[in-house]
What we know:
Blueprint: E1 8-18, E2 21-27, H1 35-46, E3 66-72, E4 80-86, H2 101-104, H3 107-113, E5 122-130, E6 135-143, E7 166-170, E8 189-193, E9 197-205, E10 209-214, H4 226-230, H5 233-249, E11 262-267, E12 275-280, H6 291-301, E13 319-326, E14 329-338, E15 341-349, E16 351-362
Parallel strand pairs: 2-3, 4-5, 10-11, 12-13
Antiparallel strand pairs: 1-2, 1-16, 3-4, 5-6, 6-7, 7-15, 8-9, 9-10, 11-12, 13-14, 14-15
Amino acid sequence: MDYAPSDLRxxxxxxxxxxxxxxxxxxxxxxxxxxARRDKLLLAAMGSPDPRQIDGLGGAHPLxxxxxxxxxxxxxxxDLDFLFAQLQPNGDTVDVTPNCGNMLAAVLPFALERGLLPxxxxxxxxxxxxxxxxxxxxxxVPTPGGRLQYTGGxxxxxxxxxxxxxxxxxxxxxxxVCPGLLPSGRALDRVDVPGLGTVEATLIDNGMPMVLVRAxxxxxxxxxxxxxxxxxxxxxxxxxxxxxxxxxxxGLGDVKAKNYPKMCLVAPPKAGGAIxxxxxxxxxxxxxxxxxxxxxxxxxxxxxxxIAQGIAAVPAGRTKAVSVEHPTGEFSVELEVDGQQVARAAxxxxxxxxxxxxxxxxx
Length: 363
């Protein structure tokens, strides 16, 4: 289709849902090579900063203010490189430091749609390197008859309906951003916070830097809705005060302007799972839980001495299915445990393209 000439620049992209997140995906070759120019383009594409993101593709929420950038990899043994970018509705920054396991679920479908890899017959598997944290994983999608399949019977909480499964097998997630799995060297820390006193917390990073605390220590039960917690200004102030103190303890420096560590209030399970969670990302309570946040919480559940001990109901055996409850359901993570080490983490997500086309950017 031909369009009238204008002073807007057309940039090819696909609007994708990955897990419980959503955002445009770009080929790296379609974006400026200079990071500053690239970020300026992404802010314009998403309509940030603006609380409604009315002039862009953003959905006025951190979960729908995400971008994926993909290229063929030149790393031996790796098929695709993925750069994740987190934007904020009200912010003018583009954060490429953290991971996003939900958007990761859409990387292989996008790459196959754009012809970066051949489509297999039956199942297509690719090794993906997340450039943000140098993390590798194997991702598989169903491709019966050499055709991408998006419909199916897999259901994930936080997304309506069912879809085809996207299998993600993480290869090495410990210390994705922090110096190690337990950056302080301890499974439990007692953190002195101005105005709060001493707070017990687990500082952990198994794919996502997180601070885990008991919900009861903050005066909540752990079964409140995300809306109720987002309206609880005093609670959010306390959580942010703790986050700012924990950042340096985790080797992250001053985190005031950063999107991590994420904050998670944990409580005994309410619906037959392993643990109940209410996560802040980092200032808004998540309607569900992020992929790598779920992996990190599940990891804390199997570590002796962590904040989850005495709270979590964890199955026996070397391979454990850990059900992490969240405000809109649960997220199951399969962990292979070797002593105090997590040897493998695997899970299922779903993904699909919502729109193929071009986003128009002011020159």
